[in-house]
Amino acid sequence: MCILCIDKKINSVSQLPNNSLRRTLLKSVGLLSVGGFISSAGTVIAQSANPPKSENILNPEQALTRLMAGNATYIKSKTLQINVDETRGALARGQNPYACILSCADSRISPELAFNEERGDLFVARVAGNFVNTDILASLEYGTAVLGAPLIMVLGHTSCGAIDASIKAYTQNASFPGHIQALTTALAPAVREASKKAKGKDLLNAATVENVRLNVEKLKESNPILSERVKKGNLKIVGAIYDLPSGRVSLI
C-alpha cells in the first residue's frame, strides 16, 4: 500500500471516537504490526502489550547497565548456555529488544556474544566502519520507535580495517576497487577531525574514537524520530569501543 493511501486511511480512521474501534480498523488496513503502527503525522508509535520478553522492558539507564554487565560477564568467559527452544515460540510472534547496536561488520565482533545476550535481546545493524547512512538510520528508527528499544550504542572496535583504509585514502590518496572507495569517503570526516587532534597519538585509534563520536551526535540530532525520543528521555544514545584482544567494551 502506498504512503498516500495509508495516510488517507489513517486520517479517516483517526476521526472515530472509540479507541478500541480505531485499533480494530487500523489492524484491518494493515497498519498495525507486532510492535507498532504509523500515525497520520508519520510518527511510529510503539505498542508493548504482551511483549515476548518481559525482562526487556527497561528504561535507558537500566538498558545500559544490563548491556555493560553482560560485557563484564563475557570478558570473564562466563557466557550464557542458550537453549533456543525456550524462546523460539515467543519470538516467533514478535520481538522487543532492549538495545540497538550499530556495529562494524568485522567478523571478529559479535554483539550478542560481546554482551552475553541471546536472540531477541539486541537489534543489531552492521556496516563496515559502523557509520550512519540512510539504511542504517531507518533500521535504528524502527528498532527504537517500533520495537521500543530505549538504547542505541554505536560500537566501534580496535584495529578497524575500514578506518585504516579511510586513513590511507586521506593521507596517501589511496584508491580502492568497487564501492569500497565510497565507504572510505563516508568515514573521511572522522579521519579529518582525528588528524587535527591526534598530536602524535596513534591516528587509527583516534579516528576510530572520533568516528563513534560523530555518529553518536548524528543519531542524537536525527529528526524527527530519534531526536524527539532523546529529548523526551525515552532514548539514550551512547558510543563505545570494543577491544579485540580483551573483548572489553569501553564507553567513550
From TrEMBL:
The EC designation for this entry is 4.2.1.1
Q: Keyword Ubl conjugation, does the record have it?
A: no
Its domain of life? Bacteria
Top-level class of the enzyme under EC nomenclature = lyase
Name a single GO biological process.
Answer: carbon utilization
Q: Which PROSITE patterns match?
A: PROK_CO2_ANHYDRASE_1 (PS00704)
Name the coenzymes or cofactors required.
Zn(2+)
* Annotated keywords: Lyase, Metal-binding, Zinc
- Please give the Gene3D superfamilies that the UniProt record associates with this protein: Carbonic anhydrase (3.40.1050.10)
Binding site residues for Zn(2+): C104, D106, H157, C160
Which catalytic reaction applies to this protein? Answer: hydrogencarbonate + H(+) = CO2 + H2O
Segments passing through the bilayer: none
Could you tell me which Pfam families the record lists for this protein? Pro_CA
**InterPro entries per UniProt:** Carbonic_anhydrase, Carbonic_anhydrase_CS, Carbonic_anhydrase_sf
Q: Name one GO molecular function term.
A: carbonate dehydratase activity
Cofactor binding mode and count: Binds 1 zinc ion per subunit.
State the family it belongs to. Belongs to the beta-class carbonic anhydrase family.
**What job does the chain carry out?**
Catalyzes the reversible hydration of carbon dioxide to form bicarbonate.
Question: Which protein are we looking at?
Answer: carbonic anhydrase
| Source organism of this protein record | Polynucleobacter sp. UK-FUSCHL-C3
